[in-house]
Structure formats: C-alpha cells, structure tokens
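PROTEIN DESIGN WORKSHEET
SECTION A - STRUCTURE
LENGTH: 362
TOKENS:
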C-alpha cells in the first residue's frame, strides 16, 4: 500500500492585511498579540483572528486604507522588537572579533598575556577623551569596555587561534600535491635540545605554502636515531601523508647526515618513507664558507672601528648625533656577534652604508 503524501501549506501575503498575520522563521505570527498557529492554514489563521481580535473589523474595516496602514504599523513594530534582540548579538560578535584581533596584535609583538589589560586601559582613556562629546560617543565607549583582554581571556584566544592554525595545516597536508621537510636541531638557553621541523607544500595550482610543522624536545641524547624516532612518532601520530614527501633538508651535522647512523640514513632505511632527495641547508653552507674563506682581513678592522665608536658612551652619543644631522640611512652601527650566522653580513652591510659618515667622524 502506497504511503499517503504529506500535504504542505504555504503562507499567503494577503493574510497580513486580512487577518493581521505575518511569516517569521517559517511560522505564522499574529501582529496584534504575537501568538503563533501550528500550521499555516487559512482556517487556523481566520479562527484566531475572529476569536481574539474580532473588534479590529469594526475599528479597521476590511479592504480599507486604514486597515492597510494599521497592518504596516504592526509589522514595523514587530521588526523593531526583533532588531532589539539582533543588536546585542551583533555587538557581542564584534567585541569578540576585536578581542581576537587585539590578542593577535599583542602576541605578534611578543607581549605578555597580562599586557592586554594595560592595552585596554590605554584604549579606554583614548576613547573617553576623543569620543566624549560625540553624538554616539557613549555607545562607542560602552562597546570598547565590553572587549575582553584579561590574562585568562588572552590565553583562551591564543589557544583557539593555535588550534585553528593546526586544523588549517592538517587540511593543507591533505590537499597538497607534494611537500618537503627541513629539519634542524639546536639547543636553547635552558640546555634543551629541540629539533624544529618546517614544511613546504605545493598544491595543484603550483602555489606554495611554508609553515612551522612542529618543535620536538629531546629528553636525553641527540643522536641520529633519537631525532629519527622523535620525528617519526610525530608524523605517525598526526597522520602526515608520507607518500607525498619528495625531499628533506638538514645541516651537515653527523647526527643528521651520518652514512649509517644519521637521521637521513634511518629515514631512507624505513619502508614507510618513499624515495626522496636530500639537500644541505644553504644558510649552513654560507656560514661554513664564511669561516674557511679567510675574511679576517676585512672583519678585524671593521670590528675594531665599530668597537672604538661604541665602547665609550660620550663618543657613541656624538656619533649618533652626527648621523641624525646628516640624515643618514641608519641611526647607529651594529655590533658583531660570532655565534650568529647572519651577524657578519648585517654588520658589513650597515658599515658600508654608513662608510661616508664614519670617515667624517673619524
């Protein structure tokens, strides 16, 4: 036996003037009392009007201009009531978005979580000064005061953004065509060994995207097998599609490129890894080349001149005043740090840019 088809009922626009009813979110709502009917049937709408608002026929005769105007007024009043509920929601959404954007700005500039409260206090002082006499100044100040930038709120915002970035990275890994990995292990100021893994992805439209994949701490030793086990565990846990791997880039440390016990050797000996290319990091190569090319005949006099200018406070102040008077490109010289790879190039570039000013000062 065939099932009986369910009959559907539709709202008719002429009911607004005839029975003072309108459609709100697929429901028939009375414009007079706000009641709703179960089904959008003419009989239900007519029965409600004749039972509860029969006097409206006498006050506002059917098909008259007075009745049309009354229906328009009631509908406008209902719209205003609905807007009262929409505005707080929209206002709350904007303050939440502002909180996220302000948190991103603070963290991007390496500020602590507690600095959000100081930032908000300064923002409120500016708002009360600038918008005090403006037409909508009170509303602006009230909205700014609702922006949450407390320490605990900032932590939640950072956590939410971090989780969102992780989800985006996982989605990119699923949609990318190929990817390559760069791995580098270093020791931080607390003597903790931490391999950093960067990933560069290529998509079907030949666009590329590079992200920090992870930072993995090593608890004890930093041998090639330790780095391999740590990185492999992470890749398996995050379900990274290793079949898309095409290359790896590392430095020249034995723990990385050792022929038998290095990180690359362990990866190539693992059947889960496909056949991939291995490259030596260009920055490491440049740092090594700078040490063996014999650059002392340039760096030694440059460092001596810089130290002679910056070693004494009075002489250093006079030099900075000279640079300001001459409208130099830079306001000061850089000190050379041997342990930083890029320090030598930056120091020489700054010194060469200020060479004329240095000659005049000397």
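SECTION B - SEQUENCE
RESIDUE ASSIGNMENT:
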């Amino acid at each position: 036996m065939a099932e009986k088809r369910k009959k559907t009922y539709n709202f008719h626009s002429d009911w607004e003037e005839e029975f003072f009813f309108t459609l709100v979110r697929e429901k028939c709502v009375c414009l007079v009392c706000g009641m709703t009917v179960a089904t959008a049937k003419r009989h239900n709408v007519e029965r409600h009007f004749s039972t509860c608002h029969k006097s409206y026929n006498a006050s506002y005769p059917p098909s008259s201009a007075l009745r049309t105007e009354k229906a328009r007024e009631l509908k406008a009043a209902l719209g205003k009531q609905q807007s009262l509920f929409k505005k707080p929601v929209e206002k709350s959404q904007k303050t939440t978005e502002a909180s996220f954007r302000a948190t991103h700005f603070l963290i991007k500039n390496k500020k602590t979580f507690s600095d959000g409260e100081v930032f908000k206090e300064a923002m409120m002082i500016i708002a009360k000064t600038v918008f005090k006499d403006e037409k909508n100044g009170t509303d602006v100040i009230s909205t700014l005061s609702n922006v949450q930038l407390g320490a605990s709120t900032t932590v939640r915002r950072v956590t939410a953004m971090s989780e969102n970035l992780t989800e985006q990275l996982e989605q990119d890994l699923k949609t990318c065509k190929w990817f390559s990995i760069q791995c580098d292990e270093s020791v931080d100021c607390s003597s903790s060994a931490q391999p950093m893994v960067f990933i560069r992805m290529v998509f079907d439209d030949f666009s590329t995207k590079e992200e920090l994949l992870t930072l993995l701490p090593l608890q004890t030793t930093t041998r090639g097998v330790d780095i391999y086990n740590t990185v492999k565990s992470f890749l398996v846990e995050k379900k990274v599609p290793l079949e898309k791997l095409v290359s790896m880039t590392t430095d020249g440390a034995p723990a990385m490129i050792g022929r038998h016990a290095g990180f690359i050797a362990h990866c190539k000996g693992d059947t889960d890894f496909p056949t991939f290319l291995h490259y030596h990091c260009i920055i490491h190569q440049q740092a090594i080349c700078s040490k063996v090319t014999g650059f002392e005949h340039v760096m030694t006099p440059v460092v001596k001149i810089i130290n002679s200018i910056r070693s004494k406070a009075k002489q250093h102040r006079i030099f900075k005043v000279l640079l300001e008077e001459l409208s130099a490109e830079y306001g000061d010289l850089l000190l050379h740090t041997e342990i930083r790879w890029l320090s030598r190039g930056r120091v020489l570039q700054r010194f060469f840019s200020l060479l004329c000013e240095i000659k005049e000062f000397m």
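SECTION C - NOTES
The mean pLDDT is 82.
The chain has four domains: 15-82, 89-175, 176-285, 294-361.
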